[in-house]
Design goal:
five-stranded parallel sheet, disordered N terminus, alpha/beta, single chain
Amino acid sequence: MSTPMQDKPLFPFGPFLFLGDSVTAGWTAQNPPLFSGPQAVGRGIAGQSVRDTARRLRSEIALYGAKGLHLLCGRDDILDGARTPTLDGIVADIAAMLRDTSDLYVRTWVGSIAPVDPTAPGAAGRPIALIGAVNAWLRDHVQEYGAHFIDYDPVLATETGALRPDYSDDGIGLNAAGRAALEAATLAVLTVPDLEPIWPPPESEDAARRRKFLHHFGYLDSNTRYPSPFIQFAGKPGASHYGVPFDADGFLNAVPIVARKPEGETRILVVGDSTTIDGGDIANTLPGRLERILRAGGLDGAKVYNFGVMSSCLTQMTHLIWSRLVTYSPDAILVLSGSTDLFQPWTYDPRPGHPYNAFITQRLYDHFFDTHDPRAREDGLSYEALITLIYEELKRLRAEVGWQSPGWEDAIVHHYELAAHRLTKLSHDHGVPIVSVLQPTILRKRHLTEVERGVASGAFLAYLDRQYAKLEAFTAQLAARRPYRRTFTALDLSGIFRDREEGTFYDVVHYDDPAREIVATRLAAEIRGALDRARTRTPLARVRHLLGGRRR
C-alpha cells in the first residue's frame, strides 16, 4: 500500500498507536513509511505476552500522544511453548488495558487473534483452542469498555477456520501476503469517514486531579515495587521488567550477588532508580554497559551488580547501601539520583523525603488494622473505594505539607541534601569509594526534538527546572568541598547531553541506547578514578609513598 499523501492525513484526529506482539511487529516493519509516525506509530514487540504489553500501554500512549489505538495481542502467549496461558489470564490483562484506554479517552480497536493451521508442525502441543476462546470473549465484551472489535477471520481464515495457506509459509506466522491482507482489512475500518476522537467531558479541578491520579495509579505495579525490609520496596523476585526477571533478592542481575567475593573480582555496585534498570536486557542497562566498558579497558576482573530500584529516592538508596550492600565487600559503589526525589512528591507522596508510596502503605495499614475501628473489617472495600480512600489521603497530605509552595520545594531539596551527607559519611565510615552522580535530565538539553518538547506540562517542567538548579548548586559545593575526599566523589551529569542534537530522552530523565552508552563510558572513567584513589590510600601504599618521599 502506498504512503498516504502528506496533505491528507490518514488519521485526522491525531496519532494512532499500533500496539501488540510479533504480528504487529512484523506487519508494521513491512511498511515503514506508513508506521513511522506521526500519524501512525508501530509498537509491536515480538515475543511479548499480553501482560508485557499491558505494562507499557500507558507510557506508550503518553509518549506518542495517541488518540487512537489498535491492539492486537495474545498470539505469542498461546504459541510460546515456554508459557502456560489461560483464558482468564489473557482476558484479564486485555480488560485492564481497555480500562486504561477508557480512562485516557483513547478510541480503541481490538483485533482478533490471527488463526493458525492446526496441522502445522509449529502448532503441535500448543493450546490453539485458546485463540477461538479469546476471540469469542473479545467479540462479546470489548464494547463494554467503549472499544471496537475487528474480526480478521473472514480475511485470514479458510472455511474450516485454519490460516489460509497462501497467507503463511509454515501455517503459523503471516507471510508478506498475509500481513498485507491484515493491513488492508485494518485500514478499511480505521479510515472510514467522520471518525472522531473521544473528547473528555468537562470536569471540576478536583475531578481533573483525580483523573490524573488514576492515570498514575497504574504505575504502583507490585512486580517492580515489592515490599522489602528497610528500603520500602524493590523488584519482586521472579517477576520481570520488560521480560528480564528479577533475581532472588529483587534486583536485575543474572544471578544474585554472593557474600564472599571471588578472588580476583573487582566488585562494583550500582544503585539508582528506573534509569538504572532500563535497557530491555541486562547487557543494555547502564550497569551491563559499564561492566563491558571496564573489561574492554583492561579491568578483566570487573563485575558490576545492578541494585537499581524503580522509583527509589536517595534516602532509600542510602538505606540499601547501609543495610545490605556494604557487607558484600564492594570495591566501589556508584549512586545515580536526583530526579526521583524531585518529581515523585509532585504526583505521589507529597511529604519531602518520603518514598513515593509510603502514604498508601500507611493509609491501608491504618484502615485495616485500627483495632479501635471494627468497621474496616466489615466494609467489603471495593477497588473503586480503595482508590477513593487513597486519593482522599493524598489530598489531605498535600494540604498538610503545603504542596507546590516555595517552602515545600525547599524542604524537598533539604531532604535530598541530608541523604547525600549521610552517603558521604557512610563512604568514610566503611572505607568504600562512592561516586554520587546527579543524573542527566532533559531540562539541560538545548536541542530538543518534537517528541522531547512534549514530554511534560510547562508547570511541571518549570518546577523541575527550579529544583534541579538547586541540586546542581549543591552537587557543585560537594565536589568543591570534597568531604572525605579519599572515599567520596560528587559528579554532576545533569547536562551531559546539553549540546547533543539527536533525539535522546523519551521522558524527563529516561534516555535511549546511544545516550546510555555515552553515560556508561563517562561513569567507567569515574569508577576507574575512584579505584585508583582507593589503591593509594591503603596502609602499604602510604608507607611506600612516605619512603619514596624520603629517598627524594
